[in-house]
Give the backbone structure.
Amino acid sequence: MPSSPVELRTRRVLLRQWGDADREPFAALNADRQVMQHFPNALSRAESDALVDRIMADMAERGWGLWVVEITETSAFAGFVGLSLATFEAPFTPAVEIGWRLARAQWGKGLATEAGRAVLDYGFGHAGLEEIVSFTSSANLRSQRVMERLGMVRNPTDDFEHPGLPQGHHLRRHVLYRITRPK
């Protein structure tokens, strides 16, 4: 039986469960081509809502997952940061991934790093994970910088071709970062 879903707090953000009011701002974020430039395509409203449904189901099943990032000062929806299971086969799977997706208005403020630290602490503490990975297209330098600020390490021999993208796709080449539980 999973534990009840948790919330995490940092100095500036609340990482919380999803609600129906989050669907509209999340759909706007997923429709933003700049936010989605390192994904195969932007998402339609129906695709975005289906993603929320999957996130909520995962959260209910495990008690953790991809939390909504809410700006504490304004209660504004900023995106998500959290943990998820890698859903494809690769040399490093099975694995738990830390990931994020923030609205453009929130970029450059350190929120992904701040929330990511809280998520890593939770993953290694309460969730009892031994290793957490993160991956992105090789062109996504912004996310790679967040991974590095979180203390994650890349070994170029771990880089891989994402099996969910066709040969020759400009986003197929991915970099892999790892971090292990502190001793």
In short: Residues 8-180 form a domain with the Aminopeptidase fold (CATH 3.40.630.30). The longest strand covers residues 76-85. Residues 45-62 form the longest helix (18 residues).
